[in-house]
Write a structure and sequence with these properties.
Helices cover 72% and strands 0% of the residues. It is built from one helix and no strands. By secondary structure, the chain is mainly α. The chain has a domain of 31 residues. It is rod-shaped.
Length: 54
């Protein structure tokens, strides 16, 4: 357990980076999907996005 205790701050840092990266990736995907969908269905409207990955 000593190694885990020593490495824990790096693990937390890396995990937070991965979570932030994934969040930004989901945002970009939704932005592109919305644009593509509206290019076909011009009347489409999107409500508030829900983030379940808090």
């Amino acid at each position: 357990m000593r190694i885990f205790t020593f490495m824990r701050p790096l693990y937390i840092r890396d995990m937070n980076f991965a979570l932030d990266y994934a969040k930004e990736n989901r945002r970009i995907i939704m932005e592109r999907f919305s644009a593509a969908f509206q290019s076909v269905y011009e009347a489409a409207e999107f409500g508030q996005q829900v983030n379940i990955h808090l």
